C-alpha cells in the first residue's frame, strides 16, 4: 500500500487552523448533542450550515469533530438523565445512570470517553486497512449492482430502531417519493413540482435532514414540555479511579472488537454492538449480579463498542457510497455539499480527500478525549438549563441555518412543513431514519434502476443472471431472512439487559 | 442508604401513552392515500416501458410500495403498536408550527430581527412560561447573538434592518 497519501493527509489535518476547526466541531457537537432529545443525526443536521461556508478540508475536519462530539453528547444525557439520544446508548444508561445516582457520574463519563476513544481509534486503524480492498471490488460495480446495493441499504435501515418493519418500509417509500420531486434526472420532465419553480431543483437534502430531525425533534419535545425535568445528579470527578480502570480495561478491548465487526454490517450496527458488548461483559463477569446496579464494565464495553461501530459504519459509506444509518445519511449529505461524492471512485481518484476524511476522524477522536474530561462539568451545567429556554434558542439557530443554505425563505417553510411531518411520523410510530436514508438514496436507486433496465432491454431477471449483481441479490435475500431473526435476538437481549438485578 | 431511596423517588421521565385503534388505522391510511395520490399524478406523466422507462414509471413503483405497505399496516391494526396518543401539548405544537410559518413569511419582508424577537418571546413566554423579564432579556440577547454569529462572523446575507 502506498503510504504517502496517508501521511500527507496527516500533515494537512494537523495544521493549526484545521485543529481549531476540529476543536470547535467537537465542542459545539457536544454542546448541541447534550440537549435532551437531540440525537447525533439531529445534532449534525442542525449544525450543517455552519460547515457550509468553509472550504472542503476544514469542513470535513469540523464534521468529524461534530460527529464524535454529538455521539458523546448522547452518552452524557444517558448517564446523567437516563435519556439516551439514540438507540446505541440505551444500554449505557442502565449501569451508567446507576453510577450517576451513586455520585460517580464523573468517572462513568470519564471511562466512557476513554472507551469511546480506544474503540473509535482501533476502528479507524482497521478501517484504513479494510476500506481500500473493498473499494477495489466496488469499482467493478455497474448500475445493476448499485440498484441492488441501494435496496440493501434501505432495507437494512428498517432495523435501525424498534419500529415495525412494515412501517419502516412505508417510511422508506415516502422518502423515495419525496426524492422524485423536481426535474426527472434523465429526461428533465418536471415531476410533482405543482407548477412552482421553487421545487424544480428538487428538495435539498439538508432541508430534509434539518426539518425532519431538527425541527421535528424540537416540536416533538415541545408536546411534553410540562413533564417534570429530571434532576441532574451530583457529578464527582471525571478521572476514573485505578480500580475502575482495571475493571474497564478488558471490557474496552472486547467492546472495540465487537463494535468494529458488527459496525460494518449496515443497519443497526452501533445499537446491536452495544447490546452484544453488554451481554459479553455480563456473561464474562465473575459477579454478574453487579450489572444493572452500576458496574463500570457495563459502561466501558458498550461505549467502546458503539463508537467502534459508529466509526466502522463509515466503511460502506466511503467505499460503496451507501450510508449505513441515519447519521451516515446526514454525513453523506454533508460531504456532497462539499463536492465530495463518497464511493469507490473517491479512494482511487481523490486519495487525498479520502485520507483527509479518515485522518480527520483520528483527530476528532483525540480531541474528544482531550476535551471531554476537563469539560464534562461545563456540559453537565448545560443540562440544568430549562428546556423552555433551550428549545426557542435551538429553533432560531435551526431556522437561520436553513435560510443560510440557499438564502431562500421558501426553504424555511419547507423545513417547518417537514418538521410537522417528522412530528406526525413520531406520533404514528414511523421512524424518520428510513425516510431520510431512502430520500438520500432515492435518485441513485432510480437512476441505476432505469439505466439497468435500458441495458437489460427491460428484462428484470437479468439482475440475477450477472454474477456480481446476483451475489448482491443473494445478500439482499439473506438479509430479508436474517434480519427478523436478529431483531428477535436483540429484543431478548434488551429484555435481559434491562432486567433489574434485584438485591 | 436513605439518600439513595430519595434519589429513586424522584420522577423518572414517564413513557408517553400509546395511541388507540384509531391512530393505528390513521398510520395505515396515510401511506395508502399518499400512494394513491402519487400514483394518480404519476399516471399523468409518461410511464414509458420497462425497456425505456418514462419519468412516471419510478414514482408509480414507489406509489405502489406505499399503497401496499399502508394496506399491510391497516390489515394488522390489532397487532401493530408504536403509536402515541396526542396530548393537550399537541395544541402547543400546532401553535408553534403556525408561529414558525409566520416567521418564515415575515423574514424576507421586514428582516430577521423583529420576527426573531417575536418568535423567541412567544416561545419563551407562552410555551416555556418564563417570566416577562427573562423573556425580554433572552429574546433580545439571543437575537443579538444570532446577528453577531450569522451576519458579522459567518457573513451570511440574512435580510436585516440594522446595518453595522
UniProtKB/TrEMBL annotation, chain A:
A Pfam family the protein falls into: TctA
UniProt keyword list: Membrane, Transmembrane, Transmembrane helix
Segments forming domain DUF112: 19-437
Highest taxon of the lineage: Bacteria
Spans through the membrane: 20-48, 60-81, 108-130, 137-157, 199-220, 257-280, 317-340, 360-380, 387-403, 432-449, 469-489
InterPro entries reported for this sequence: DUF112_TM
Designated name of the protein: Tripartite tricarboxylate transporter permease
Organism this protein belongs to: Glycomyces buryatensis
Amino acid at each position: 500500500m502506498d503510504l504517502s497519501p496517508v501521511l500527507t493527509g496527516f500533515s494537512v489535518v494537523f495544521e493549526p487552523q484545521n485543529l481549531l476547526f476540529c476543536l470547535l466541531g467537537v465542542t459545539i457537537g457536544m454542546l448541541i448533542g447534550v440537549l435532551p432529545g437531540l440525537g447525533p443525526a439531529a445534532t449534525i443536521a442542525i449544525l450543517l450550515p455552519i460547515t457550509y461556508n468553509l472550504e472542503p478540508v476544514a469542513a470535513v475536519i469540523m464534521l468529524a469533530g461534530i460527529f464524535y462530539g454529538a455521539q458523546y453528547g448522547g452518552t452524557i444525557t444517558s448517564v446523567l438523565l437516563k435519556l439516551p439520544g439514540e438507540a446505541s446508548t440505551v444500554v449505557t444508561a442502565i449501569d451508567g445512570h446507576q453510577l450517576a445516582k451513586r455520585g460517580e457520574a464523573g468517572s462513568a463519563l470519564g471511562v466512557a470517553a476513554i472507551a469511546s476513544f480506544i474503540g473509535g481509534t482501533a476502528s479507524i486503524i482497521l478501517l484504513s486497512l479494510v476500506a481500500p480492498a473493498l473499494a477495489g471490488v466496488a469499482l467493478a460495480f455497474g448500475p445493476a449492482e448499485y440498484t441492488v446495493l441501494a435496496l440493501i441499504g434501505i432495507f437494512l435501515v428498517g432495523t435501525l430502531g424498534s419500529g415495525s418493519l412494515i412501517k419502516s418500509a412505508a417510511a422508506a417509500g415516502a422518502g423515495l417519493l419525496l426524492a422524485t420531486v423536481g426535474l426527472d434526472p434523465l429526461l428533465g420532465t418536471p415531476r410533482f413540482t405543482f407548477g412552482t419553480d421553487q421545487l424544480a431543483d428538487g428538495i435539498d437534502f439538508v432541508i430534509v435532514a434539518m426539518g425532519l430531525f431538527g425541527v421535528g425533534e424540537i416540536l416533538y419535545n415541545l408536546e411534553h414540555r410540562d413533564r417534570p425535568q429530571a434532576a441532574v445528579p451530583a457529578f464527582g470527578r471525571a478521572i476514573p479511579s485505578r480500580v475502575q480502570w482495571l475493571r474497564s480495561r478488558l471490557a474496552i478491548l472486547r467492546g472495540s472488537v465487537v463494535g468494529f465487526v458488527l459496525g460494518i454490517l449496515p443497519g443497526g450496527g452501533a445499537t446491536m454492538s452495544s447490546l452484544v458488548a453488554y451481554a459479553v461483559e455480563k456473561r464474562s463477569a465473575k459477579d454478574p449480579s453487579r450489572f444493572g446496579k452500576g458496574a463500570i464494565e457495563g459502561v466501558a464495553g458498550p461505549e467502546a463498542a458503539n463508537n467502534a461501530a459508529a466509526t466502522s459504519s463509515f466503511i460502506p459509506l466511503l467505499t460503496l457510497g451507501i450510508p449505513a444509518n441515519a447519521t451516515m445519511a446526514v454525513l453523506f449529505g454533508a460531504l456532497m455539499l462539499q463536492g465530495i461524492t463518497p464511493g469507490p471512485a473517491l479512494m482511487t481518484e481523490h486519495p487525498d480527500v479520502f485520507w483527509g476524511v479518515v485522518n480527520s476522524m483520528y483527530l476528532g477522536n483525540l480531541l474528544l478525549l482531550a476535551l471531554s474530561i476537563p469539560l464534562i462539568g461545563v456540559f453537565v451545567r448545560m443540562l440544568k438549563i430549562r428546556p423552555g429556554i433551550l428549545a426557542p434558542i435551538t429553533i432560531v439557530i435551526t431556522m437561520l441555518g436553513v435560510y443560510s443554505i440557499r438564502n431562500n425563505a421558501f426553504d424555511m417553510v419547507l423545513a417547518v412543513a417537514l418538521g410537522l411531518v417528522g412530528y406526525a411520523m413520531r406520533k404514528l410510530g414511523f421512524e424518520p431514519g428510513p425516510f431520510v436514508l431512502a430520500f438520500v438514496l432515492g435518485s441513485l436507486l432510480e437512476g441505476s434502476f432505469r439505466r439497468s433496465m435500458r441495458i437489460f432491454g427491460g428484462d428484470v431477471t437479468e439482475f440475477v443472471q450477472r454474477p456480481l449483481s446476483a451475489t448482491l441479490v443473494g445478500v439482499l435475500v439473506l438479509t430479508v431472512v436474517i434480519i427478523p431473526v436478529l431483531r428477535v435476538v436483540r429484543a431478548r437481549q434488551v429484555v435481559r439487559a434491562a432486567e433489574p438485578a434485584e438485591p | 442508604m436513605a439518600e439513595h431511596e430519595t434519589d429513586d423517588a424522584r420522577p423518572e421521565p414517564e413513557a408517553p401513552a400509546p395511541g388507540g385503534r384509531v391512530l393505528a388505522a390513521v398510520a395505515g391510511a396515510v401511506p395508502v392515500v399518499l400512494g394513491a395520490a402519487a400514483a394518480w399524478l404519476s399516471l399523468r406523466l409518461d410511464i414509458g416501458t420497462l425497456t425505456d422507462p418514462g419519468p412516471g414509471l419510478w414514482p408509480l413503483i414507489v406509489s405502489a410500495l406505499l399503497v401496499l405497505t399502508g394496506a399491510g399496516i391497516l390489515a394488522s391494526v390489532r397487532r401493530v403498536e408504536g403509536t402515541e396518543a396526542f396530548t393537550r401539548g399537541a395544541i402547543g405544537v400546532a401553535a408553534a408550527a403556525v408561529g414558525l410559518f409566520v416567521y418564515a413569511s415575515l423574514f424576507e419582508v421586514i428582516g430577521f430581527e423583529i420576527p426573531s424577537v417575536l418568535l423567541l418571546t412567544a416561545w419563551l413566554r407562552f410555551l416555556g412560561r418564563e417570566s416577562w423579564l427573562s423573556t425580554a432579556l433572552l429574546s433580545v440577547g439571543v437575537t443579538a447573538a444570532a446577528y453577531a454569529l450569522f451576519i458579522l462572523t459567518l457573513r451570511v446575507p440574512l435580510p436585516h434592518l440594522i446595518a453595522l
